[in-house]
From TrEMBL:
Record-linked PROSITE patterns: ABC_TRANSPORTER_1, ABC_TRANSPORTER_2
Organism: Coemansia reversa (strain ATCC 12441 / NRRL 1564)
PANTHER family in the record: ABC TRANSPORTER DOMAIN-CONTAINING PROTEIN, ABC TRANSPORTER G FAMILY MEMBER 28
Name of the protein this chain belongs to: P-loop containing nucleoside triphosphate hydrolase protein
UniProt-listed InterPro entries: AAA+_ATPase (IPR003593), ABC2_TM (IPR013525), ABC_transporter-like_ATP-bd (IPR003439), ABC_transporter-like_CS (IPR017871), ABCG_dom (IPR043926), ABCG_transporters (IPR050352), P-loop_NTPase (IPR027417)
Length: 671
């Protein structure tokens, strides 16, 4: 097997790194000034390499990874990053990059296969891959990541049983690998895993890198000696400064030459000891800071001189991949070729919108009109054009709708909660206001029925719905950062997936109350009430989306939402006379969904009703119109209530969407 650290393997002239970064500096604002998190970091990574970023806690590993992945937010970033020798286009780069976050953010209710298939369906172009190709791709990834035996298991998490931690991590990796990326980035893939699961993840990652000619960057805290041996290169960071970058096998000799012989059998422990600042005493701190600075200066000088730590060529990796693992590496020119061709197909998609049958980086660059090692600015500009969306709007929305529908119906507590609420409220309301007749007491009871109907269709609908939407935001953020789909398709699919589970039980509840309470038995009146009520449900869903999108924290949303709904309740026209509200606050009723629904329902019910005034009561409503007038609910006709409420509901959705699209949009710094 060719040694990745073989000093005789000088890079060939045509070898261009997949990613090359120079003089990266990253500053963040802190109290009283700025703090430099990354100091003048340079390096490069080639296809097929597995590279670990190591350092003690707070060394800047995740920050460097995020900078290279184009996922850093806030602060100031300087330096240069080249992707295949050209300036990166964020849209194209996103398609080539697979980013596996430290927390495995996936939908817990989906199975392993569903998770991978949805990723493939959304992220692979229908023009290039047939549905069978996508299925095949998913099966291949599951086989390679040893996931076939759990393909129908739910992911689980958040208190629900599911696959193990190591399996979850492998699913996260698989969901990214189905697109055949050019670069795989993993943040602390071993964190939270036992040593054998962690080793398996790293081992499989190495296999994948070799098989797919993938360049893989991993941050890792303190790996075992076996794990360290699997990395082709290491990037060692101390206090945001580069202490070493080069072949793993040459790291220990490098430090030995500087006068630091190894003190541990595990090189990772040795590196961490060298790079950690000892805060136990002032003297120890100064001494360790001095040591780190010396290592940093030595490596900077070494880099300036050109260094004699030779990076391995791509050829050496191809050789290594043939010899490294007989059972997982396919015959040269077969799967290896196929996987690189598909991996580069994504690049070609980005360049030309077509798939490629090419088998290596050079050929695929040529497909994009680029020549390896000889990229002019004009050629590099090919990467600047924004690639077309992977699939049509309708196809994307349909995939998301299917996924969201599965998520919704598998959320048993949510669905059952809505059904139980609807049934209980129907029985209580119906029988408290049972078979109303036309006496004076029925006036109050009819008013009570309609007002309660308004309340029970907003509070218990909007609050759980908002919780469900918010609990999926982490996954949304991850998928959005990876450019998996448009925000419009996400929004429409998410909303549509909720309608049946809200509308079916609540329309049944409405009809039940209507007939049990003996509201006006008139077909036209029933359907008009139903229309007013259906629009109210539309508004409740819209309000839930609004709160879920504009409020960042779940607990804040749980405080604000009931308060807003309670204010709406005050202005509905039941607890206060709609015409007698203080003029300064009267406008609130015009943005109050309760007011229009309640007013519409009351007008529809009371119009045409006659009441019995024979009981000698001091005040008597002889007709329904008197009641409407007394409550001040005749200002806007029923059709007006329906139209205005529909417009308000639509407004909620639009503001929620705009908030999602622009306000909650992650703003990554880009080089
Ligand atoms: N946006 C930011 N604002 C303020 N400080 C930041 C910011 N981003 C990173 N830092 C600081 O930069 C340092 C490096 O952070 P980073 O997360 O990259 O470290 P790390 O090496 O990955 O650590 P760990 O292994 O503990 O995850 C830390 O001290 C962190 O607090």
């Amino acid at each position: 097997m060719a040694q990745s650290g073989d000093a005789t393997n000088a890079p060939s002239m045509d070898a261009i790194p997949i990613l090359k970064w120079s003089n990266l500096n990253y500053d963040v604002k802190v109290k009283g000034g700025t703090r430099r998190i990354l100091h003048n970091i340079s390096g490069s990574i080639y296809p097929g390499e597995l590279v670990a970023i190591m350092g003690s806690s707070g060394a800047g590993k995740t920050t460097l990874l995020n900078v290279l992945a184009g996922r850093v937010q806030g602060g100031r970033l300087e330096g240069e990053i080249k992707f295949l020798g050209a300036t990166r286009n964020p849209h194209t780069f996103k398609r080539m990059l697979a980013y596996v976050e430290q927390d495995d953010l996936m939908h817990s209710a989906l199975t392993v296969k569903e998770t991978l298939l949805t990723s493939a369906q959304l992220r692979l172009s229908n023009n290039v891959y047939s549905p069978e190709d996508k299925q095949e791709r998913v099966s291949t990834v599951m086989r390679q990541l040893r996931l076939l035996h759990i393909k129908d298991s739910r992911i689980g998490g958040g208190g629900k049983r599911g696959v193990s931690g190591g399996e979850r991590k492998r699913v996260s990796i698989g969901a990214e690998l189905v697109i055949d990326p050019g670069i795989l980035v993993l943040d602390e893939p071993s964190s939270g895993l036992d040593s054998s699961s962690a080793e398996m993840v790293i081992e499989l990652t190495k296999e994948m890198s070799r098989q797919r000619n993938l360049c893989t960057l991993v941050t890792i805290h303190q790996p075992s000696a076996e794990m360290v041996a699997r990395f082709d290169k290491v990037i060692l960071l101390a206090q945001g400064k580069l202490v070493y970058m080069g072949p793993t096998t040459q790291a220990v000799p490098h430090f030995e030459k500087l006068g630091y012989p190894p003190t541990h059998s595990n090189p990772a422990n040795f590196f961490i000891d060298l790079m950690t600042i000892d805060f136990s005493s002032t003297e120890a701190t100064l001494k360790s800071e001095e040591r780190v600075q010396l290592l940093v200066d030595a490596f900077a000088e070494f880099q300036q001189r050109g260094g004699n730590l030779q990076l391995p060529t791509r050829k050496s990796f191809e050789e290594a991949s043939i010899h490294s693992s007989e059972d997982c590496v396919p015959a040269q020119g077969q799967e290896n070729n196929a996987s690189s061709s598909t991996s580069i197909a994504a690049l070609n998609d980005a360049c030309s919108g077509k798939g490629s049958q090419a088998g290596n980086v050079e050929t695929n660059l040529a497909h994009c009109g680029l020549n390896a090692g000889d990229i002019t600015q004009e050629e590099a500009n090919l990467f600047q054009s924004e690639p077309p969306p992977m699939n049509s709007w309708v196809s994307e929305a349909w995939i998301l709708l299917k996924r969201d529908w599965i998520l919704t119906i598998r959320n048993r507590s949510f669905v059952n909660g809505l059904i139980v609420q609807a049934v209980v409220m129907m029985l209580f309301n119906g029988f408290v206001f049972f078979q109303l007749d036309n006496n004076q007491a029925s006036v109050q009871n009819r008013i009570g029925t309609l007002f309660t109907l308004t309340l029970v269709s907003t509070f218990p609908v909007a609050i759980p719905l908002m919780t469900v939407i918010m609990s999926g935001r982490d996954v949304l953020h991850r998928e959005r950062s990876g450019g998996m789909y448009r925000m419009t398709t996400y929004f429409v699919a998410r909303a549509l997936s909720f309608y049946p589970v809200v509308y079916i039980p609540y329309i049944i509840m409405f009809a039940g109350i209507y007939f049990i309470a003996n509201l006006q038995y008139d077909v036209a009146k029933f359907f008009i009430s139903l229309l007013v009520y259906a629009v109210l449900l539309f508004c409740s869903l819209g309000f839930a989306f609004l709160m879920a999108m504009i409020v960042r924290q779940m607990d804040v949303a749980h405080t604000i939402t009931p308060v807003c709904l309670s204010v709406f309740m005050l202005f509905a026209g039941n607890l206060s006379n709609a015409n007698a509200i203080t003029p300064v606050l009267r406008w609130i009723k015009y943005v109050c969904i309760f007011y229009y629904s309640y007013s519409g329902l009351v007008q529809n019910e009371f119009n045409g009703l006659e009441f019995d005034c024979s009981t000698n009561e001091s005040s008597c409503y002889s007709s329904g119109e008197d009641v409407i007038d007394a409550y001040g609910l005749d200002e806007i006709p029923i059709w007006g209530c329906v139209v205005i409420n529909f417009a308000l509901g639509l407004g909620f959705y639009i503001i929620a969407y705009l908030s999602l699209r622009w306000v909650a949009k992650p703003r990554f710094l880009w080089l």
